[in-house]
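Researcher: We're teaching a course module on how sequence relates to structure. For the next exercise, students receive a sequence and then see the predicted structure as tokens, so they can try to spot secondary structure elements on their own. Here is the exercise chain.
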Amino acid sequence: MEYRQLGASGLQVPVLSFGTATFGGSNDFFKAWGSTQAAEATRLVDLCLDAGVNFFDTADIYSDGLAEEILGKAIAGKRDKLIISTKATFTFGKAPNNQGSSRFHLLKQIEGSLKRLNTDYIDVYHMHGFDGNTPVEETMRTLDDLIQSGKVRYIAASNFSGWHLMKSLGVADKYGWNRYVAHQVYYSLANREYEWELMPLGIDQKVGAIVWSPLAAGRLGGKYRRNQPVPKDSRVAQGGSPVPETALQENIFYNTIDALDAVAAETGKTIAQVAINWLLQRPTVSSIIIGARNEEQLKQNLGAVGWSLTTDQLKKLDAASEVPTIYPYWHQRQNLTLNPPPKFY
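Model: And here is the predicted structure for the students to work with:
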């Protein structure tokens, strides 16, 4: 397993990490992802460790805390071998203060996560989304305090806009507080908007990307084909997709599937493995979160590493998946000397 440095931190993480949103299935949304319980979760954790994947990602809201509880049981006796990531910010409970990135909410949620995970510390603590109501200074000071207390080792953002992330980094720098070392983002061959602003920001500020849903909620898994209905057993059909249909441009999406088919045939790999391997060649990407409902899916996803697409294959996939840019990016691309794009090859 290849390991990469997480942003500007000294932490080395495997290029593949395991996402636990499939653990629990306590409500309709997460049940569509999966309903893995403790015994099977323990087996999946062991398979990951055998493959060199020691980075496990969860969140307080995944199945209303049940995913954290199951992960806590699955890692019993193994904590010193693992890197654990969890998140807060989204609504957890009914009271007005049970959401956001306020000091009140974060101090409450970190204690809950530590208890559910049965651990004394979190390796990477994410703000699951940006809180536009709480002052950035309050959030960053609270996170710095959590690091100083030993309950958190590194902090990260998730699903931030460019200005959200840059303002947070600026505030941390102004006061000498710990800054975000990573940004958990949606990025896939089906949606490449991450490249427009967040990737250049990550390069400039040395913020590593941890990619969620690299297969676009299963759409790049090999079951989706032009002029065919959405598979009934898919997460999309069951209402569990975090990536909306409106985010996809149908013709470009199926052109991308065609290109994936061609490259998969050339490499002898699956479409899903090719789609994940493409991401591993992109700047800023530190780790890609893979999920699995069962051992077979996990083993297939683990097969995305240990080899690399050729430059010609990367270019073929890039050309098929390219979408028109929005303003101001199309204007900036009129002068690539002033605004050089990230180098992919």
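Model: If you want an answer key for the exercise: Residues 250-267 form the longest helix (18 residues). The mean pLDDT is 93.
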